[in-house]
Structures are given as structure tokens and as C-alpha cells.
Specification:
Elements (H helix, E strand, L loop, with lengths): L3 E4 L5 H10 L10 H11 L2 E7 L2 E10 L5 E9 L8 H14 L6 E6 L4 H6 L2 E12 L2 E8 L2
Parallel strand pairs: 4-5
Antiparallel strand pairs: 1-2, 2-3, 3-4, 5-7, 6-7
Helix pairs in contact: 1-2
Length: 148
């Protein structure tokens, strides 16, 4: 199994939404699907999919703050069968490396939940803020920044 990362295309949307559903309600609230749909249609700046043998098994992107100084890791979703197998870490590192190449990016941040913030912590992010029930009831916001 050698995962490959490529840029998202509009034809990937059904599979990305399917990945979200596979991770609902364990990691995402059902209320978040319209948000992802809107993101895919209107807010993507850079978004990627991870494929294994032609199958999309993960996705994630990044966006920028208005002044372009903050690169924001966004919408990481990994197929449950591939969680814990290094796919998420490979995708995260790929995006961090791309963001570090951009001279205008001074901070790399992520907004996640209490369910996966430890993954980001293991990958060099520091917790800055917690907001209870931010995403939906029972899904708290964990705002983090890369400390490298």
C-alpha cells in the first residue's frame, strides 16, 4: 500500500462526502455535512485527496487568513479502514511542507475537535483554545498551532 496525494477535482466530491459519512457520528456531527459541501463548492483554496490503488481513502486541504499570514489546515478526513496506518500523518506532513514553502505564511493552524486533537499534538501542534460545543453539541473546538 503506497498512498499517493493529488489535487482534489470536482469529480472527487461524492467520495469526499462518503468519507465524511463513514466518519459520522464518531468524528463528525451529521450537522457538518452541509458545511463540507459548501466548503467544497465555495471555499477551497488548496484541497487534496489520498489514493491507494485508485481508491480515495483520505482528503484534506488548507486555506489562508485574510492577510495570508496564517495557513489553516482544513477538513481532514481519513477512511476508517486507513486510520492509524500513517495516511493522515502523510497528508498532514505534505500540507505542512507546502505551507512552509510559502514566504507569506508565518503560522500554521488547525481547528479540530476533542476527538482527534491528540493526533495534531503528536504532529507538533500546541493547543491554544477550547470552545465547548462549537461544531455541534458534543463536538468541541480545539484551536491549535504548529510549534515547529
Amino acid at each position: 500500500m503506497q498512498p499517493t496525494i493529488r489535487e482534489y477535482t470536482a469529480s472527487d466530491k461524492p467520495m469526499v462526502l462518503h468519507l465524511l459519512r463513514l466518519n459520522t457520528p464518531e468524528y463528525f456531527s451529521p450537522e457538518e455535512e452541509p458545511d463540507l459541501d459548501h466548503y467544497l463548492e465555495h471555499e477551497i483554496e488548496q484541497y487534496f485527496v489520498v489514493e491507494v490503488e485508485g481508491e480515495v481513502v483520505g482528503c484534506g486541504g488548507y486555506n489562508f487568513s485574510e492577510d495570508l499570514t496564517v495557513g489553516k489546515i482544513s477538513w481532514d478526513i481519513i477512511h476508517p479502514d486507513y486510520q492509524g496506518r500513517g495516511v493522515g500523518g502523510q497528508l498532514l506532513r505534505f500540507r505542512i511542507d507546502r505551507l512552509k514553502e510559502l514566504k507569506h505564511v508565518q503560522v500554521i493552524s488547525v481547528r479540530t475537535s476533542q476527538l482527534v486533537y491528540k493526533f495534531y499534538e503528536r504532529n507538533g501542534f500546541t493547543l491554544l483554545e477550547v470552545v465547548k460545543d462549537y461544531w455541534a453539541p458534543g463536538f468541541d473546538l480545539y484551536r491549535m498551532e504548529l510549534k515547529e
